[in-house]
Amino acid sequence: MSTSGEIFGAPCWVSLATRDLASAEAFYGAALGWTFRPTRLGEEFRVALQGGVPVAGIGAVAPRLGIPMAWTPYFAVEDADVTAARIRERGATTAVGPLAFATGRAALAADREGAAFGYWEGEVVSQWTSAEDGAAWAELRSRDPFAAAVFYGEVLDWATGRPGSLDVAYEHDHVVVRRGTMTVARISGGAVGGDPDPRLRPRWCVHFAVPDLDEAAERAVRAGGSPASPVEQTPTDRRMVLRDKAGALFTITEVRDPGA
């Protein structure tokens, strides 16, 4: 068990805010093969497991907190109050919290382009896995990746030179955020502010790795979800955006072997 202060700045969790916990468990269990266990956060929350390893959280909190049903990445911070002040000082918004839970404090915020993200001060189940081989990762779609990197860098203490600080690099039209050699997040361009299609607006996209993209997409549709994009192919992966039964967007990604 780590604390958010030990891994500050890095995505440390993703969580789905939904209305119906049982329905969400049934959908993601069928679509992605997840199992679930209770948490110390209360009866409204579950931890999703893939192969026995925690990969995500689900909370039936959307109605109570007045927030949309959506997947959100949470970033580890040393002090939630300091983070909230930094967000306000830079013209962005903390919409909910910080709220106290059994193991820490959480808040939901929106950056200056409107992309929602969370931050967490407290115990961390496990450090976020890498985009190359992890079970899940986060990618920001932004109108201006450079400006977004500056914002998050100032809010989350990226690239400060402090021990444990994340490194930030601009590579192949993407901003890549790393801890050592491990990629923990990406920022990409191409978002369109105010677009009626939520896939195209600035947002944090949550990716889940699957061994077979076509099979996972078929299971998701059978479970009541729907495709939200065609399959996109890159030199390293195949990916597709899906909607769950309640309308929350998420991305499944099949990583390809470069030598295959």
TrEMBL record:
Pfam families: Glyoxalase_6
InterPro entries: Anthracycline_SecMetBiosynth, Glyas_Bleomycin-R_OHBP_Dase, Glyoxalase_6, VOC_core
Annotated VOC domain residues: 10-122
Protein name: VOC family protein
Native source species: Streptomyces globosus
